[in-house]
Amino acid sequence: MTMKRNGKSPVSSDSDEKVVFFNDVSLGPRESQLRFRLIHFWEARNPVKKTVIGLEMLLIDEQGTVIQGFIPPGRIKKFLPDMKRGSVYKLINFYGSKNKPMYRVSDHVATISFTWNSELIRLHDIPIHFDEDRYRFHSYEDFKANCDLRGDLYDVLGHMKLVNGQTLTERPTLDELEIATTRHVLVHVQSHDGPVMKLYLWDQAATEFCQKFKTFENTPTVILVTTVNPKRTLALTSMSSTRVFMDNDVQPTIEYFTWLGCNPDTANQVSADVVTKRETLSIADIFSYIKQDSAKDAFFECTATIDDVVHGSAWYYIACSGCHSTKGPTSMVCTNTKCEKVNTTGVAQYRAKISVYDNSEQAVFVLLGDAGRSLTGKHASELLSSYFEANGDKGAEDEVPVPESLISIIGQTHRFCVKVTDHNFSGNTRAITVTKVLSQDIPPHTEASVGNNNAASPKVMMLTRDEVSEPSKSRGDCANEESKRGYDTADPEKAKRPRCEN
C-alpha cells in the first residue's frame, strides 16, 4: 500500500504483495514490501552539536540477513510510537541508500531509508520464523588490526576479568553515583584463552551494564557487547548502538557460559597484574594521546633521559603520615576526612620537577614520593634532616636548596611509570606525574637504544577515577645562590623547612 505525498488517502497497488528479501535490496527507490524483525534502534547524533540527525535501526529478515535502517529526523515522530524492539514489521516503499563507510553495524551494501511514502505496519501472530538476532564477533587480532579505522563496529564475547579494577573473586561493588559522574564502566574481557582487552562502556551502555549486573543473584561472568569501536590504544569503546548481554541472556552467552564451565582453568589463567600491565610509549605519543578528545586518566611507561632539575619550584612537600595528603610547607593539620590516623605527623615527600627527553620530544616530569627515593636512594625526610643537622642555624622559615642527591641524577636514563589526568587534558599543566621508577640499570640514552620507543605499540591501560590521583601543584620559590656547608648543591632551588604538629 502506498500513500499520497500529503500523507492522506491510502492507495492500493499490485506491488504491495511483492516481498523483497534483504539480499535483493539494491540502491535507489523501491515500491516493494519488506518483512523483518526490528532488532534494535537508537538515536544518531551530531558529535559536535549533539543534535539528532536521525534514528538508526538494525533489521533482520526471514532469511537471517541483517541490514541497517534509517529514519530521517523529520519522520521520527511518525514512526517511533509504533516501534518496539523484537517485533515483526512490514515496510512498504523505501529507498535503498548506500551503506555508510564509517561505524557500520551490518555487512550489507545498502541501508533501508524511510521515505515520504513509507508505511510501517506491525505484524502479529505471523507464522514465518525470524531469528532474534545476528552477531558479528571479532577476535583480539581483528580488533588490533582495525584500531581507529572507524569502519565496521563488531561484537565482542568473553568472560570478565575485572570490573572497574575489581576482580570477580568477590562480587564487585558498582558505585552508581561514581559511574554517573565518570559516565563509564571499565571491564577487562578475555575471549576464550586469548589476550585480555579493555572494554569501556559509556553512558547508556554503562547504565545498562549496572542494571543487568545487579539483577544476577550470582556474580555474572560472561559478557557480550555489540558494536564496539576499537581505539588506537586497543581499548574497545561502546557506541550509541551498543547493547549489553550477560550469562544466560542470549544464545551466544549461554553457549560461552557452558564452555567456561567446562574449562574452569581459563577464568584464572590471567592475573590482574597481567591485565593492568602498563605499555610503553614515547613522550611524543603521550602528548599526542593527551590531545585526543577521548583521552581519559591513564598510566604509561616511558623511557627518558634526565636533562636537568627544573628551577623555581620546591623539591618536596609536607604530607600527612597517615594518608600522604599535601599539607603545605609548615603546618600539619590533616583535613582529609578519609584519613584514619588519629595522631598525624608531618612527613617530607618528594615533589621535584625534572626536565627529560627521549628520541621524540622533551617534557617535564614530576617526581612524587617513592619515585624520588628510587632515583636518589634516600627518603626526602632523610635529606632534610641531613641539611638541618649541617645547618643548625637555619629555622623553619628558611629555604632548603635542592640536594646534591637530586642534582646527581642528571644524565641518567630510566624507565618511568607516569600518569596523565584531567589537569593535563584541560591544559592546566604539561607536567607529567611520575609514580614509579621501574629500572635504574638502563644504558645511557643513544639513538640505537631508544629508537624503538617511537615504534612501540601505543597501548595504554586506562584506569578508573579512584585509581588515579590528581598531580600535585608545585610551589614557586625564590632562587638563592648561597651554598650551605655539609650540603653541597649546584642548583639555586630552595624549599622551606617543615614544622610538624600533632
Automatic annotation (TrEMBL):
Source domain of life: Eukaryota
Biased composition (Basic and acidic residues): 464-502
Disordered as annotated region, ranges: 462-502
Gene3D superfamilies documented for this protein: Nucleic acid-binding proteins (2.40.50.140)
Designated name of the protein: Replication factor A C-terminal domain-containing protein
Source species taxonomy: Eukaryota, Viridiplantae, Streptophyta, Embryophyta, Tracheophyta
Segments crossing the lipid bilayer: none
Coiled-coil region(s): none
